[in-house]
Amino acid sequence: MADAVDKTATLLATLWVRIRPIVEERFATLDEAAAAAKSGLLNAEVRSAGMSSAHKLAGSLGMYGYDEGTRIAREIEVMLGGANPDAARLTRLIAELRASVFPDV
Fold this sequence. Notes:
α1 (2-39) runs antiparallel to α2, α2 runs antiparallel to α3 and α3 (67-81) runs antiparallel to α4 (87-101). This protein has helices at residues 2-39, 44-61, 67-81, 87-101. It starts with a helix and ends with a helix. With 105 residues, the protein is an all-alpha fold. The protein contains four helices and no strands.
């Protein structure tokens, strides 16, 4: 049983290394949405891209054991779907999400 757990952990770690650049791209999209919200220029295209990135992060982070990241990403997705997202809160949530996924950065 322990051998199977070790193999699963090794496989997930290997997969995480492969998808990390994609995760970082999704963070960049969220940062862009937060900056647009802060400047009052959050248009439909940037909003949609941010929602999509948050949705994809919420779906994938749990698979790698980042349950808190999944929760925060869902909150960001909902926030971006609202009429006027609070830019300061959005920025804080993205920072929390980043810290939950990349605690050593």
